[in-house]
Amino acid sequence: MRIKIWLLTLAGLLIIGCSGSGYDYKTGVNERVSIPNEVSRGFINTAERMASHLMTHYAIANANTAPIIIVNAVNNQTGKPFDIKAYKEKLLNALNSKSGGKAKFIESEGLETADFSLTPVISNLVPDKIEDNLRYYNFSLKLVTILTGNAVWGDQQEFSRIEIRGNAR
Question: Which of 43, 48, 123, 142 could make an SS bond with 77 (beta carbons 3.0 to 4.6 A apart)?
Fold first, then answer.
């Protein structure tokens, strides 16, 4: 049932996206265009899995008090448009919902009382992977101690995002 709903939603998005795509029949321009303001469900699922994994790291799971973790801005290394603020918001939501009070996630840079810094990065997969109007990206997180600057945890996973065909502007 969920698959049918997902397929109908995907078909609707493709129809809506293609109906006003501006395809130029004279020049034949038909390039892939990302949907920059859309935070994909794939990213949200990936962020939730990674947040759960982070909560099992010894420095968080075994801490006497909840460590304070600065979440840095999402570093977009793809060259594709991403709404970085929306992606960071979804990441913060996933981290806070999975933490169960084991850690405090904040956005403030340079807070002297913070224990860790968490850096999120979105990058292209190599080779560039596109299947059925989905483009695949790599999402990685790196946890660094503020005191020493040493990376103590990292994870990376793949997520997909719908792309539509249209006249690139």
Answer: 123
Q: Please list the residues that pair with 161 across neighbouring strands.
A: 135
Return the amino acid letter for 24. Answer: D
Taking alpha carbons only, the member of 165, 157, 158, 159 closest to residue 132 is 165
| Torsion 92-93-95-96 (CA) sign | positive
Strand partners, 154: 142
Question: What are the residues facing 162 on neighbouring strands?
Answer: 134
Structural domains of the chain, with CATH: 2-166 (3.40.50.10610)
Q: Is the pLDDT of residue 68 over 70?
A: yes
Which tokens in the block code for residue 84?
Answer: 């970085």
Query: Bridge-partner residues for 70, per DSSP?
Result: 106, 117
Distance of CA 137 to the CA centre of its chain: 9
- pTM higher than 0.90 for the full model? no
d(C-alpha 93, C-alpha 20), whole Å = 33
**Mean model confidence pLDDT for the chain:** 77
Q: Report whether pLDDT(135) > 50.
A: yes
